Structure formats: C-alpha cells, structure tokens
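Section 5: illustrative case.
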C-alpha cells in the first residue's frame, strides 16, 4: 500500500508496531531502525506528519515523509532508494510522538 493508496483507503498503523522496526530502501537495503515520528500539532486538524527518525551507526537520522513510499499495517517502512538522509535536528514546533506523546493522557479542552 502506498501513501497515495492510504489517502484513498485509510488504514490505521500503530506507532508501537512501527517502533524499532527496520526501515528499508526500495532496493532492500536496511537504513536503520525507527526511533520516533516527527509531527506538528494543529489546532483544527489532525497532526501533520513531517518525517521519521531512525537510529543508525552514525546517530539519529531524519527522513521526510515525502520519501516514504510505504508504511505497511505491520509497521514496516520502505523509503525511496535514493532518499537523502540527514542528521536529525529538531525544529521549533515539532513534536516527537514516542518521546513526548506515547503513554501520556491527552485532553482536548474546548477553547474559551
């Protein structure tokens, strides 16, 4: 299932099922293990997924969602073979789902 297919037919993928899974390039090469998902919370919409953080021998690396070809329901991730990998640097306004959200209770309070 590709990301474009997901838009047409939504499938829920658990963050837990994705964590520590190996990410592979479309050529089958292992890129690293998924450590976190980078998102931006929005007031009136679902969070915007910015990219994925993987652990590699050289440290955490970031892959933007634009290069993610497939996220299967079992959590496996496949990215474009020629995806440009970059060191992970957190930007203002970004939220790490594993580090900051997973395991916490969130309350949606009406605005006053």
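Designed sequence:
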């Amino acid at each position: 299932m590709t990301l474009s297919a997901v838009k047409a037919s939504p499938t829920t993928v658990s963050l837990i099922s994705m964590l520590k899974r190996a990410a592979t390039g479309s050529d089958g090469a292992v890129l690293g293990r998924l450590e976190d998902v980078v998102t931006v919370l929005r007031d009136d919409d679902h969070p915007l997924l910015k990219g994925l953080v993987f652990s590699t021998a050289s440290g955490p690396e970031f892959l933007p969602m634009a290069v993610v070809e497939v996220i299967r329901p079992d959590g496996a991730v496949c990215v474009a073979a020629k995806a440009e990998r970059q060191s992970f640097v957190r930007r203002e306004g970004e939220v790490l789902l594993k580090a900051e959200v997973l395991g916490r209770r969130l309350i949606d309070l009406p605005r006053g």
